[in-house]
Protein backbone atom coordinates (compact mmCIF):
# COMPACT_ATOMS: atom_id res chain seq x y z
CA UNK A 1 0.00 0.00 0.00
CA UNK A 2 1.32 3.46 -0.84
CA UNK A 3 2.16 6.03 1.81
CA UNK A 4 0.71 9.52 1.40
CA UNK A 5 1.82 12.71 3.17
CA UNK A 6 -0.64 15.31 4.39
CA UNK A 7 -0.26 18.75 6.00
CA UNK A 8 -2.89 20.83 7.74
CA UNK A 9 -3.41 24.35 6.34
CA UNK A 10 -4.47 25.65 9.78
CA UNK A 11 -2.09 24.18 12.39
CA UNK A 12 0.74 23.02 10.03
CA UNK A 13 0.72 19.47 11.44
CA UNK A 14 2.23 17.05 8.91
CA UNK A 15 1.84 13.28 8.92
CA UNK A 16 2.10 10.21 6.70
CA UNK A 17 -0.57 7.55 6.30
CA UNK A 18 -0.83 4.33 4.31
CA UNK A 19 -3.89 4.24 2.09
CA UNK A 20 -5.10 2.05 -0.72
CA UNK A 21 -5.40 3.50 -4.24
CA UNK A 22 -9.16 3.18 -3.97
CA UNK A 23 -9.39 5.08 -0.65
CA UNK A 24 -10.49 8.71 -0.88
CA UNK A 25 -8.08 11.45 0.21
CA UNK A 26 -8.25 12.74 3.76
CA UNK A 27 -9.77 16.22 4.06
CA UNK A 28 -9.96 16.91 7.82
CA UNK A 29 -7.02 17.34 10.21
CA UNK A 30 -7.14 14.86 13.11
CA UNK A 31 -5.62 17.49 15.45
CA UNK A 32 -7.62 20.67 14.82
CA UNK A 33 -10.26 19.57 12.26
CA UNK A 34 -8.75 22.02 9.73
CA UNK A 35 -8.37 21.47 6.02
CA UNK A 36 -5.68 18.99 4.86
CA UNK A 37 -3.56 19.21 1.74
CA UNK A 38 -1.86 16.22 0.16
CA UNK A 39 1.90 16.73 -0.18
CA UNK A 40 3.89 15.57 -3.18
CA UNK A 41 7.62 14.92 -3.18
CA UNK A 42 10.25 13.86 -5.67
CA UNK A 43 10.75 10.16 -6.22
CA UNK A 44 14.28 8.79 -6.50
CA UNK A 45 14.82 6.76 -9.65
CA UNK A 46 17.98 4.91 -10.62
CA UNK A 47 18.65 3.33 -13.98
CA UNK A 48 20.82 0.25 -13.62
CA UNK A 49 22.10 -2.07 -16.30
CA UNK A 50 23.09 -1.57 -19.89
CA UNK A 51 21.23 0.59 -22.37
CA UNK A 52 20.38 3.53 -20.10
CA UNK A 53 23.39 5.72 -20.74
CA UNK A 54 24.36 7.63 -23.85
CA UNK A 55 27.64 5.72 -24.02
CA UNK A 56 25.81 2.38 -24.07
CA UNK A 57 23.62 3.30 -27.02
CA UNK A 58 26.55 4.71 -28.99
CA UNK A 59 28.61 1.57 -28.52
CA UNK A 60 25.73 -0.50 -29.86
CA UNK A 61 25.26 1.77 -32.88
CA UNK A 62 28.95 1.70 -33.82
CA UNK A 63 29.13 -2.07 -33.60
CA UNK A 64 25.91 -2.36 -35.63
CA UNK A 65 27.25 0.03 -38.27
CA UNK A 66 30.48 -1.94 -38.49
CA UNK A 67 28.55 -5.16 -39.04
CA UNK A 68 26.38 -3.48 -41.66
CA UNK A 69 29.46 -2.25 -43.56
CA UNK A 70 30.92 -5.75 -43.62
CA UNK A 71 27.63 -7.13 -44.89
CA UNK A 72 27.43 -4.45 -47.57
CA UNK A 73 31.02 -5.07 -48.75
CA UNK A 74 30.36 -8.79 -49.27
CA UNK A 75 27.29 -8.35 -51.51
CA UNK A 76 28.95 -5.50 -53.41
CA UNK A 77 31.75 -7.87 -54.38
CA UNK A 78 29.15 -10.36 -55.60
CA UNK A 79 27.20 -7.49 -57.11
CA UNK A 80 30.23 -6.28 -59.08
CA UNK A 81 30.65 -9.69 -60.73
CA UNK A 82 26.89 -9.69 -61.34
CA UNK A 83 27.17 -6.06 -62.42
CA UNK A 84 29.70 -6.87 -65.13
CA UNK A 85 27.41 -9.46 -66.64
CA UNK A 86 24.53 -7.01 -66.35
CA UNK A 87 26.75 -4.34 -67.93
CA UNK A 88 27.48 -6.69 -70.84
CA UNK A 89 23.80 -7.42 -71.43
CA UNK A 90 23.05 -3.69 -71.27
CA UNK A 91 25.78 -2.99 -73.81
CA UNK A 92 24.39 -5.61 -76.25
CA UNK A 93 20.93 -3.99 -76.78
CA UNK A 94 22.45 -0.54 -77.36
From TrEMBL:
Residues 55-70 have a biased composition (Basic and acidic residues). InterPro entries: Regulatory_FmdB_Zinc_ribbon. NCBIfam families: CxxC_CxxC_SSSS (TIGR02605). Residues 50-94 are annotated as: Disordered. It comes from Mycetocola manganoxydans. It holds the Pfam family Zn_ribbon_8. This is FmdB family transcriptional regulator. It comes from the Bacteria. Residues 1-41 form the Putative regulatory protein FmdB zinc ribbon domain.
